[in-house]
Amino acid sequence: MSCSGCSTGRGCGTASTELPGGCRNNGACGVGACNKLNVFDWLADLELPTGQTKFDCVEVRFKNSRKEFYRNVNNLMLKVGDVIATEASPGHDIGIVSLTGELVRTQMKKKNVNSESPEIKKVYRIAKQADIDKWKEAQALEQDTMMKSRTIARFLRLEMKISDVEYQGDKSKAIFYYTAEGRVDFRQLIKDFASTFKVRIEMKQITLRIEASRVGGIADCGRELCCSTWLTDFRAVNTTAARYQQLSINPVKLAGQCGKLKCCLNYELDSYIDAIKDFPNTETPLETVNGRAFHMKTDIFRRTIWYASENDRSVFVPLSVERVKEIIAMNKEGKKPEELKATVQYVVPKIKEPDYQNVVGQDSISRFDKSKNRDRNNNRNRGKGNNRNRNRNRR
After folding, report:
1. Which end of the chain, N or C, is less packed with Cβ atoms under 10 Å?
2. Which of the following CATH numbers is that of domain 141-210: 3.30.540.10, 3.90.1150.10, 3.30.300.20, 3.30.70.380?
3. From CA 149, how far away is CA 251, in angstroms rounded?
4. Tens digits of per-residue pLDDT, 106-130?
């Protein structure tokens, strides 16, 4: 059976008779499969203490990164990768078990879901072949439905973008995920959708970052987006993080595929803040006998600060952090150094010349043409010789 979340054509753990294509741990993890935001079940091979029952909730994955928790009221023997029928409103939905056991309790606490709540929906049964066939038919309609829905929204001139469509497993309901800058009046849109697709319509507004995590893609670093693979929370990112890391404030380079600032700007921010704690205030000019010197740039890793004199802004003088602190302390005492002398030997690395020879241009471009002309002349001469022999024979 092909996978519901990608186009690999492999099983990828989407059927109860197939295992994930990763660690071959009897379906206990999804490493190597196409699931998003996987959690490795490191407790899968451990037995429960005597007298303790298995946690009765399971984590179920649906399209893309949507995951929900369901209660296993019938005590079914479920493992990661099983296709099950779950409770929905209305009807039932089809999903894939992504996590079982005690780690589900931890995930519910992490996402602030009360495990004792009566609102947790139930697991009906392991999906039958008829359920899976109907589920595949519903998935086949999603792409065509999304394109038609975009056409209808454009015809109604609504300021919104429909990014994804997800059908319920029994084809009784369709969820339309959309992004919009402001409030959208889609009352007429829902009527047109219901009359066109003949299903129950549910509209869900998502942010641009959630849209990027659902759709997925390749980032500038060459790897898959963090939000669609392992990042579970979206923290606020501002341009202050770029300034701390001495990055140019270029919106094109700092923005991700969602149009917002990249989440990876926060990854090393704490290290940069710790590194510049003992750096002097760069807004303070350095007083010298020849005039003031102003800050130009900073290299945090080399602990070097460049200053330029107000008389000649084109010459950058590299100073160590300790030397800058010393000059600032001298200025507070009313003393001024005669001039700024470079205290850091900043050597530009030499580029090693390649040890191979460039042979481009040593061969003539018309070398093949000469051989062709030579062959043509030889053929002509051969033809002339044959004609002469024929004339002699005739005489």
Report:
1. C
2. 3.30.300.20
3. 32
4. 999 988 999 889 999 999 999 999 9
